[in-house]
Amino acid sequence: MSDLELLQKKVRKLQSRAGAAKMELHDLAEDLPVNWTKIKAVARKAFKIFAELNAAKEELAALENSQ
């Protein structure tokens, strides 16, 4: 498998994880004020995943532009 294909696969996996994290935040927000103490932990998790996704997308774009 080429570097490009591996990176595309990584981005797809991260997009899936990001979607799940977004839904977790959404569900938490809908249930407020119940479980309000979980806001920071859930937000940190979502932030980390979206940061990873953004970095992977930038890496993928750079790789695609260099070919």
From TrEMBL:
Family: Belongs to the UPF0437 family.
Native species: Mesorhizobium helmanticense
InterPro entries in the record: Helix_hairpin_bin_sf (IPR029012), Put_N_fixation (IPR007774)
Keywords, sorted A to Z: Coiled coil, Nitrogen fixation
A Pfam family reported for this protein in Swiss-Prot or TrEMBL: Rop-like
Name listed for the protein in its UniProt record: Rop-like family nitrogen fixation protein
Taxonomy, superkingdom: Bacteria
Coiled coil: 4-31
